[in-house]
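Before relying on records like the one below, remember that each one covers exactly one chain. Contacts with other chains, cofactors or solvent are not represented anywhere in the record.
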Amino acid sequence: MTAPTDQFVDFATRTQELATAAVRTWTDSVQTVAGGLSGRRPDLPDAHVMVDRYFDFAQQVLDSQRRLAQNVVTAGTQAAQTVSEQAARATESVTAHATNAAEATAGAAKDAGRSADEQADETTRAAKGNAKGAAKS
């Protein structure tokens, strides 16, 4: 065990010893007072039964806390999966739109290039025609 664990165990042990001594003192005091009032020993609840009831209750609380923690973890896991799936779909959508836009831009540029080539060819033909006509005159 590590030093902090040893200290915790020692503290817990001393606390239990002090609690046990306090309960014994209290029980003795109550029995003395009760015995003096009625002259007979009162019927006190069985201490073992009380301890069992206390720990049964504590176990129920602990089980309830475990179920709550498991439900929170399950909900968190499901939420993370949903967000991850939505992010993947969004990424696919953005990629598809970007690809389509790039293809459309490339097509438009290609068409613009063809148009520019055609205009250049027309201008070249016209210039050649003008040059031939000027050479003839």
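The chain is about 90% helix and 0% strand.
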